[in-house]
Structures are given as structure tokens and as C-alpha cells.
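Hi everyone, sorry if this is the wrong subforum. Our group has a chain we'd like a structural model of before ordering constructs, and none of us has done structure prediction before. Sequence below.
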Amino acid sequence: MVINLNSSLLPEALAIGIIGLASTVFWIWVLVTCVLEEHPGKVKAVWVVLIALTHWVGALAYLSWKSLQKRTHRKRQE
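Answer:
Right subforum, don't worry. Here is the predicted structure as C-alpha cells:
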């Protein structure tokens, strides 16, 4: 298959590529964060599998869960 570089679809293809690369970097960053910061146990295992299988959706869910956990912990301390 020959790709025509003068195609009008080049900017869209570039944007999709950049978004795909950014979401993959985000996914790997969150997966590594989960592996390094969570305490060993079932919760960690579930999150690692969930993030690994659902890509950026699982990563976003994990960050939301961590944020909620931190807010709840701060409210208990007050």
C-alpha cells in the first residue's frame, strides 16, 4: 500500500498518532505508578489487571479512584 504524503488526511492522521502515543504513555505511567505505589494484595492485583486490559480507560478509572481515596482520607483527618 502506497501512502500519498500530499493527502488532505495527513493532519488528521498525525493528530490521531499523537493522541494514540500520548494515551499509551499515560497508560504505561499509571500502570507503573500502580505497581510501585499500591500495597501488595488483591486490590493491587485487580487494578494492575484492569489497567493492563482496558488501556487508558482503566488508567483513568484508577486515577479517579486514587483521587477519591485521598480526598476521603483528608476529610477523616480533619
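For your construct planning: The longest helix spans residues 10-37. Residues 21 and 27 are 10 Å apart (CA to CA).
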